[in-house]
Hints:
binds flavin-adenine dinucleotide; 19 strands; eight-stranded mixed β-sheet; about 40% helix; 16 helices; D-Amino Acid Oxidase, Chain A, domain 2; FAD/NAD(P)-binding domain; alpha+beta
Amino acid sequence: MSGYDVIIVGAGPGGSITAKVAAEAGLKTVFFERGRKPGEKNASGCGLGPRMWREFPNIMKELKPDVVPSMRMASCVMNHYLDKDLKERAIEMYYPTDSVTYDPAKKFITMNAYRSEFDPWLAKFATDAGAELKTSMLIKRLVKDDAGKVIGVQTEKGDKILGKIIIGADGVISTVARFSGLNPRWRSDQITLVPQYDFSADREKIDKIYGPDGVLANAADGIWWGVTFPAAYQVIFGDGFHIGLGSWMGQWIKNPISYINQLVGSKPFQRMIKAIDAKPREVQSHLLPWTKEPIKTYTDNVMLIGDAGGFPCPLEAEGVYPAMETGKLAAEVAIKAISEGDTSKKNLKLYEDKWKESSVGIEFQAGESLQTLWKNLFFSTQSEKNNMEWFIPLHVEMNGAHYDWSEPHIVRFRQILNKIQEYLPEAIPFMMKYGMPVLSDIMEENASTFPLLMKMLENMRPKKKK
Ligand SMILES: Cc1cc2nc3c(=O)[nH]c(=O)nc-3n(C[C@H](O)[C@H](O)[C@H](O)COP(=O)(O)OP(=O)(O)OC[C@H]3O[C@@H](n4cnc5c(N)ncnc54)[C@H](O)[C@@H]3O)c2cc1C
């Protein structure tokens, strides 16, 4: 039996950053990966958010197409709206807006890379820093002392490896979370199933349609909002794309694949496939925690990071950045705790304090309200009463109807207002029930914005004649 300062289970984005930070501080660090190499299952998570460039600039500046060939920038996002007949009602495109505060978030929405290339690339930073990576090594359970405290891990062959701190970076089905007692199992409202198709496509045609010199769009990723399927994301890479959609385990009322098939079979989607000469390459289906708040993430000698702790963002389930950030924070706490000779849960509580204060924790301040709104609108799988049935025509009427030249503009505006009124009996109660809680969460944080608005409105009000 050998002993380590830090044992990390999992060599995904979270595990690799944890291993890098711990090893750089001189801790004896090992990270275990059940796959033959990190990223073997290529489980998506391939739209990389700009916060990664802000928080990990020295690493992310090295991400280049020569080391990660699938890499491609999505400088904007393209929304497609499909009605219940799968007819495309609108396409919108958005670049980063003026309120964005830092580079490179001003330049792109996401940077895309296949996990089969990204994960091994990231793991090398950890091994270069001195961490040992053990691949093809499945951790089956945890080793505990007589008092029931975790003191190591056990491989499927029965080998026991001891460590002062054990970090669960082992994703959604986390052995560390389960055997440490931190999370015996997810509730159905905490976990989503995400079917996804991967298509190969012609590089030149992707560039022509979506590339920097494209005519239709400019390096865009797509979101497909539909009445008959939950919102689907399309992430475009150098040589192909993913199309996937997800919803909570307790919420599916039909086979999840049937929803994605509806979208793939729609005319606009088929038109896009033909334009870039796309061919189906792989079918995937993965679980993903999608929680309103993370679970308890520490106990004696143990911390959970990334998916194992339920950290994907509550709105869109961005999970790579949260895994890396919580990995960094857990490593920093491990370094301090080990130097103090106290790895008890009392001392590791600092990890929870740190992630709550971080950009990852701030996401969850409106976790409940945002997720409830999304669940009842874009990610709904209900067939009888789907809020997208009024939302899509209302959205289109509000944003696009004025382009029409069928009548004098004043007449058109009257027609539009009349039409909008038809949707209000459904839209107003919905906004009161699901929109107001979001607004109130936002206002709480930004209390100064509201008085300013009120003052402006007050000044604009016509003054009564005396
Ligand atoms: C379909 C889909 C699409 C997604 N799209 C995005 C996206 O576009 N952008 C984004 O930011 N996030 C996305 N996510 C979320 C993102 O993939 C995850 O949040 C992220 O990968 C979490 O990183 P992690 O390091 O915590 O865990 P993982 O990436 O899951 O890594 C865990 C690692 O641990 C290994 N492991 C597990 N158990 C053991 C064990 N017992 N012993 C040894 N090794 C083990 C696994 O093989 C794996 O390599 C998506 C998720 C899914 C499912």
